[in-house]
Write a structure and sequence with these properties.
Strand content: over 45%
Oligomer: single chain
Structural class: alpha+beta
Helix content: 10-25%
Radius of gyration: 25 Å
Number of strands: 20
Order of helices and strands: EEEEEEEEEEEEEHHEEHEHHEEEE
Number of helices: 5
Largest sheet: 20 strands, antiparallel
Length: 338
């Protein structure tokens, strides 16, 4: 257990406040890993019955290491202001910031990745029995080897989640293992109720700045509320999914990723004795030729379309049919209408 000191004061009206402090602590896992917490301090305020909890917790540094891999995070702060809502969900705001995060892999300890200015923010609201949740993840800078990239931002939203359906799903998940088909039926009914409100997941913004340009994207996936119940035909339920997505990649990012992929394949062949050693110049020529060939194959398939100084992917799902840049893609399962 965490050797923390907690001082709690509760007023006559039931409101209270807890001050939490902890000194440096080390936990060791059975597998040989180690978790180290340098210190912790924070304050949490709560209403009667903890219906509302607000406050912040700060950790100057924590680290985790195992199998030669190491993660070290500094200047963490968690701020919350949440209330207990429908389906036992915490409604309100949660903000987590990490000043810096260093990740070193055991295979390449001399090439750690350093992320600066990480932030994760959530916002959950309930209106008329419907839950909406927003999520924003951002980073100011990423340093790896000799390359630096960033900033980056991902903004997502879950909308029109039926609170009653979420409560039913939670209850079905707590059912005893022997419930079997009865629990499955309850899950199908809950999913049908969930679908009736046209739930929607959106990637409102994907943006990441690289040395060769910006990666950009957006998308959404939703359920049409005018179809069959999932209990009647689960497969036809999938045909109610509708969505669209777009992604733009700078040419240098695509070529760089393909070059690394080809380089890894060459290393594998050489290690297995299937390829004679190549000089640096020969290796460079082989990789360049392979990258050009694969880009041409992608262009022919139209799954990645060249546009200006980059490449574009535009996808659409409707009536059980998925298209990418106007070309129909065969799905691993057959959807009604597809």
């Amino acid at each position: 257990a965490l050797p923390a000191r907690i001082r709690t004061v509760i007023a006559l009206d039931g409101n209270g406040e807890s001050e939490i402090t902890a000194t440096e602590t080390v936990f060791r896992t059975p597998g040989g890993g180690e978790f180290r917490l340098k210190a912790l301090d924070g304050t949490l305020r709560f209403s009667p019955g903890s219906a509302r909890v607000a406050g912040s917790i700060r950790i100057p540094e924590f680290s985790w290491s195992a199998a030669g891999n190491e993660w070290v995070a500094g200047n963490l702060e968690l701020t919350i202001d949440v209330t207990r809502g429908a389906a036992r969900l915490g409604l309100g705001n949660t903000d987590l910031t990490i000043g810096n995060l260093r990740i070193a892999r055991g295979t390449e300890p001399e090439k750690p990745a350093l992320l600066t200015g990480l932030a994760l923010k959530t916002n959950t609201r309930e209106t008329g029995g419907r839950i909406d949740t927003g999520l924003v993840v951002s980073v100011k800078r990423l340093e790896y080897g000799t390359t630096t990239s960033g900033p980056g931002r991902l903004s997502m939203r879950l909308a029109n989640l039926n609170a009653a359906a979420l409560r039913q799903l939670e209850a079905a998940g707590r059912a005893p293992p022997g419930d079997g088909l009865a629990s499955l039926g309850k899950i199908f009914n809950a999913l049908t109720l969930l679908a009736a409100d046209a739930p929607r997941v959106e990637i409102q913004e994907l943006s990441y700045q690289t040395g060769g340009g910006e990666i950009r994207g957006a998308g959404a996936l939703s359920i049409r509320p005018d179809g069959p119940t999932i209990g009647a035909n689960p497969l036809s339920f999938l045909s109610l999914l509708t969505g669209e997505a777009n992604l733009r990649l700078p040419a240098s990012v695509v070529r760089g990723a393909l070059a690394r992929e080809v380089g890894a394949e060459l290393d594998g062949l050489a290690a297995g004795g299937a390829l004679a050693p190549l000089s640096a110049r020969q290796r460079e020529r082989v990789i360049a030729a392979a990258v050009t060939e694969r880009l041409a194959a992608w262009a022919k398939s139209r799954y990645l379309r060249e546009a200006g100084d980059g490449y574009v992917l535009e996808a659409r799902l409707a009536d059980g049919v998925l298209t990418v840049n106007g070309e129909t893609v065969k799905l691993p399962f057959s959807l009604p209408g597809g």
